[in-house]
Amino acid sequence: MLHTSDWHLGRSFHRVGLLSAQRTFLDHLVETVRAREVDAVLVAGDIYDRAVPPLAAVELFDEALHRLAALGVPTVMISGNHDSARRLGVGSGLMERAGIHLRTDPAGCGTPVLLDDAHGPVALYGLPYLEPAMVRDTLGARRADHAEVLRAAMERVRADLAGRPAGTRSVVLAHAFVTGGAVSDSERDITVGGVASVPASVFDGVDYAALGHLHGCQTLTERVRYSGSPLAYSFSEAGHRKSSWLVDLDGDGAVRAERVDCPVPRPLARLRGTLEELLADPAHARHEDSWVEATLTDTARPHEPMARLAKRFPHLVSLVFDPDEVAADGSASYAQRLRGRSDQEIAEDFVVHVRAGRAADAQERAALRSAIDEVRTAETAAEGAR
């Protein structure tokens, strides 16, 4: 199986279009399927970057589906939190006849795609992104949080699997933030109820869990893995090795996984120093053809820094000011104070600020959390309806 996810078709990188790079990745994917004699392709969500993708992204997706179908290789895809599940699922019944299995309806979590090899049947279950408040009733979850709705979905998987012939191997595709995974700046926050992550143990009992949502390729356990995004979508991914997982599942359900590197359209570089240091340091010569994020540490803002840096680094796309010296009153900048803080923490800090140091009590913190969750749920529902 070739496990991939988080294509984000239609996304740009600091206003630089990535459609050509995404097309190159899909060429690579199709060639890998052909050359490595892949038996099934798994795409674990966030196929598009937004609910209503640009036409060029839709055309690229359509072309990829035709090419995979022409190879006769079954493809199982789920919707992610960036996708509109309803839009992505249009025509899924017809596509199934061509071997393209789109799983976008939470009610179908317990209905697998069934494949066979020399060792017998393999059941592949697609769990689309589960927005807790919207799927709680559908799945019969006890609470509207990520862990509970995913547990409820997995109960359906296990119930179906229990009725299958002995020796049936199982694979689950899911789009979620699993505890222990390393995050990037380019992933949309899915926190609800103050908790976004779910334990890896929720997938106990299946042979392989193909995860999407986090953009770094990573192994949580031998049987629970993120493929990561095929391209870097933020400078926080500058150190990532972009790849897919080529997973062998033997007759006993044992997993052997190999990373297959994705094409790199242009390397990323995060440079820090004064303007003069960045312009003069010979060590930066290797980054002159990279996409560059330059963080200037000058105490005073230099004259025309973007234009001057672009002469050396023509693919400079981000300029950040972060002086090494703090302000005269010793306070940090607004950006420095907010760095790494959640929406909940920022809201609680604001309460302290406007009430002259008196923090929110437990009831007020719960009210803030509820308001933030309602906004996130409403935004998700609005995206799905657009």
Describe the fold and architecture.
It comes from Streptomyces kronopolitis. This protein is an alpha/beta fold. The chain has three domains: 2-261, Metallo-dependent phosphatases (Purple Acid Phosphatase, chain A, domain 2); 268-325, no CATH class; 343-385. It is 32% helix and 23% strand. Helix 1 (19-35) runs parallel beside helix 2, helix 5 (132-139) runs parallel beside helix 6 (146-162) and helix 10 (343-354) packs across helix 11 (362-385). The model has no long low-confidence stretch (mean pLDDT 91).
Structural topology:
Layout: E1 2-4, E2 12-13, E3 16-17, H1 19-35, E4 41-44, H2 55-71, E5 75-78, H3 85-89, H4 92-96, E6 100-103, E7 113-117, E8 120-127, H5 132-139, H6 146-162, E9 169-175, E10 177-178, E11 197-198, E12 208-212, E13 218-221, E14 224-226, E15 243-249, E16 255-261, E17 268-273, H7 275-280, E18 291-296, H8 305-312, E19 316-321, H9 334-338, H10 343-354, H11 362-385
Subunit structure: Heterodimer of SbcC and SbcD.
Family: Belongs to the SbcD family.
Keywords: DNA recombination, DNA replication, Endonuclease, Exonuclease, Hydrolase, Nuclease
